[in-house]
Design a protein that fits this description.
The chain is mainly β and about 100 residues long. The protein contains one helix and eight strands; from the N terminus they run ββββαββββ. The protein has one domain. It is about 15% helix and about 40% strand.
Length: about 100
């Protein structure tokens, strides 16, 4: 029998945006991905493609030690307007931008 910690349930989806399996909360609308940067981007591209949605990322930063990409919501009705996937210091974080 496994114990489910608070936040693990939340890590399945946040503001309606699915999260990679094993993602853990690190702050408000911020989650650490257990996948690498490229693998996290690929996970999202596959996820949206399975739903029949054309989806891609716009590079924001591409430096030797820092990388970041932005994905815009494909729906104007979602609770999130976009999200950023960033890698710094060996950690990959997903930051969800709440629609206002």
């Amino acid at each position: 029998m496994s114990t489910l910690w608070a936040g693990e349930v939340q890590a399945v989806e946040a503001l309606g945006l699915p999260l990679p399996p094993g993602a853990t909360p690190v702050g408000s609308h911020r989650f650490r991905s257990p996948l690498g940067f490229d693998a996290t981007l690929e996970w999202y591209e596959r996820h949206f493609k399975k739903g029949g949605v054309k989806f891609g990322f716009e590079p924001l930063i591409d430096l030797p030690d820092v990388a970041s990409a932005h994905g815009a919501s494909p729906s104007g009705k979602s609770r999130w307007s976009g999200f950023n996937v960033s890698e710094y210091g060996g950690s990959v974080v997903i930051f969800i931008i709440e629609r206002r």
